[in-house]
Amino acid sequence: MKFTFSPGTDIVNNPIELMGDYGYGIFSMFRKDVLNMIGNEIVVMKKACDGYYDIMFKGGHTLHAISAHSITMQPV
After folding, report:
1. Among residues 15, 19, 28, 72, which one has the fewest Cβ atoms lying within 10 Å of its Cβ?
2. The pTM is what?
């Protein structure tokens, strides 16, 4: 099994409205740090608090406090 970053379609359809939920105020940074990671494989997950994880991608890029609902498990 592999885990991927797969936030809901709301973030894809309305990214400017929802980027504040991820702690971003500048869209270009949000696109670089979050939107470009959609569908990428997660190589490390650490529990941040109940239902939320710090996730790391290949290459070391990390997102903090990501909802478990945005993480999907897929067969390899």
Report:
1. 28
2. 0.87
